[in-house]
Design brief:
globular; 36% helix; 6-stranded parallel beta sheet; Rossmann fold; alpha/beta; single chain
């Protein structure tokens, strides 16, 4: 096996959750050239992905060169983690002798012809990490390492260290990431303010906000700050730094707290003590899988440790301040 194309055109969080599968693929084919194809919105994470030799970025507005390279290159193996019309077409044009996807694509005949082999992996019954590993498991037997991983360059780490000094944050700190791509994941601003106030009183550490540039996310963080009694030790970097720099800040945080989003998977990649809030999404599929993670969920009065694929989501408003503070206390037990 000389040349492998891996297609992952989903969002940032899914890309991070694909890293254990990429690690196992590299173990199976240590000498192969592995090309990872990401969608343009996920391009920011590309420099931190290990176990691949190159990353291609799909941008539908400037895709001619990619299609040309795809047809010209030719691959021995193509693995599609996405399973939509676009990824099926890319798989077909890879001209790989083996083109492997998930069996759910067979629900649409127009997709299934893009593959030579379909892997059964019921996504509703699997954690997303395990679902993606199943695609690699079709190639050989192994005992997988399930932990997600990211590799930041030394230059990014130095930039984060410089930034911390510039804003007056030389020592330990907490990271809060209240925003998400889906506004229904937002928790109430006044409840966030109460939890942050509790955390500051409990451990006496300054807090850093991370987040994207979406206007609704920035408004949400602004509402939290407006409800905070003392903002002198709260530093908002939301919308001001790029993804990798935010990841470097999370890597060095004493604790991460946020909703179910890509930033929580970043904290998991660096095995930071973390508290993750769930509401409309089921933590069965998305919860952190390292030992120092705590999960709270709308409709439950305490952190949960057992996960059920059949549980239905609830609005974030059903998650109480007391439950999150309880989860915060549990997460603090992992802080050194």
């Amino acid at each position: 096996m000389n040349s492998i194309l891996v297609i992952q055109l989903k969002r940032l969080g899914d890309v991070i959750l694909t890293t254990p599968a990429l690690r196992e693929l590299r173990k199976l084919y240590p000498r192969a050239r592995i090309t990872l194809l990401l969608d343009h919105p996920s391009a920011a994470v590309a420099p931190a992905i290990a176990d691949v030799d190159e990353v291609w970025i799909y941008d539908r507005n400037t895709s001619f060169n990619l299609w040309y390279d795809l047809v010209r290159r030719g691959f021995d193996l193509c693995l599609d983690f996405t399973g939509n019309d676009r990824s099926a077409l890319i798989s077909f044009f890879s001209k790989a002798a083996q083109r492997i996807g998930f069996s759910f694509v067979a629900k649409r005949l127009a997709r299934s012809w893009g593959y030579t082999h379909l892997v059964r992996s019921p996504v509703r019954e699997k954690h997303t990490v395990d679902h993606y590993i199943d695609l690699i498991r079709s190639l050989g037997d192994f005992v997988p390492e399930r932990g997600v991983s990211l590799n930041l360059t030394e230059s990014v780490k130095r930039s984060a260290e410089t930034l911390r000094r510039e804003i007056g944050l030389p020592g330990p700190y907490l990271v809060f990431h209240p925003g998400a791509a889906r506004p229904e994941k937002y928790w109430l601003a006044e409840r966030w303010a109460a939890v942050i106030r509790h955390a500051q009183m409990r451990v006496g550490l300054p807090c850093v906000f991370t987040g994207g540039r979406d206007p609704s996310e920035l408004r949400h963080i602004g509402e939290i700050l407006a409800r905070s009694r003392d903002t002198s030790r709260i530093f908002s970097l939301a919308g001001k730094v790029d993804f990798l720099l935010s990841a470097a800040l999370i890597q060095e945080a004493s604790l991460f707290a946020g909703v179910d989003t890509a930033a929580a998977h970043v904290a998991s990649a660096f095995q930071r003590p973390e508290l993750v809030l769930f509401g409309p999404t089921n933590p069965f599929h998305w919860h952190p899988i390292h030992a120092s993670a705590v999960v709270v969920r709308a409709g439950f009065g305490a952190p949960i440790t057992r996960f059920d694929p059949q549980q239905k989501g609830l609005p974030m408003s059903e998650l109480s301040t007391e439950t999150v503070i309880c989860g915060m206390e549990a997460a603090f037990t992992y802080v050194k």
